[in-house]
Amino acid sequence: MTAALADPVAPTLAMPTRAMGVITPSANLVVERVTAAVLQSFPDISAHYSRSPVRGSKDPFPASYNLDGMLGAARLLGDASVEAIVWNGSKGASIGFAHDRDLVAAITRETGIAATTSVLAIDADMQRRGITRVGVVTPYRRDEQERLCAVLEAEGYRVVAEAHSGVADNLAFMRVPPAEIAAMVGQVAAARPEAVLTLCTNFPAAFQVAALEAAIGLPIYDTTLAGVWAGLVAIGIDTRPGAPVWGRMFVGGRPS
Predict the structure, then answer these.
(1) Which of 100, 193, 216, 255 could form a disulfide with 189 if both were Cys (CB 3.0 to 4.6 A apart)?
(2) Which residues lie closer than 8 Å to 205 by C-beta, 6 or more apart?
(3) Strands (E), 33-132
(4) Cβ(166)–Cβ(142) below 8 Å
(5) CB atoms near residue 184 (< 10 Å)
(6) Does this model's pTM top 0.70?
(7) DSSP structure string for 71-92
(8) C-beta separation of 249 from 225 below 8 A
């Protein structure tokens, strides 16, 4: 046993030296998988997770956040002294970006830790690039899609095309087939927006983003990837090493 432990060819795991906290919806099976995959390009960073209740097809807080639940999740991450906390969820795109701004302010007041969200990261990067005409792809029902598009329009974006899968249950969002996601992205790209948004952090679009960007010649903002990107930027990491695998958003990730 001693010889095996001392074997110089045995694999060695480097301990990450920096940490970010991630709050994810409780019914989500995509965020952790995407985050773990992205962080392979950033071995010094570890991600640590907390969950906020989201289940089924009925939201008990349809026009706001469950602030008690979110702050409870944030406090648990605060116990680990993470450097930043990110809400890797897309709800702000359906209820208004101001809710995300209020949420991150509340998290920082509660924990003393810098906070951000997937939606705020997408908004900031699109504003930086001057993008206003977008195509929207989601797994949602028609009524949810209409509400989301109306919020984007109210936030100053023109939705020139949209496609949605019509799925009602939060847990089932992750089961939309990759081929269907690619087809929907191609459909909205035909309207030639300035960017395509794949919104919903339990929607498994992230793993196709770089390939789809190459195919359609447009940037794609995926909420799940945006959450990881935002967390990295918030703790001062240059995200460009992730760009070849995860797409154009990571190209602009050198913190100022």
Answers:
(1) 216
(2) 137, 181, 185, 198, 220, 222, 224
(3) 45-52, 84-87, 114-117
(4) yes
(5) 24
(6) yes
(7) HHHHHHHHTTT-SEEEE---TH
(8) yes
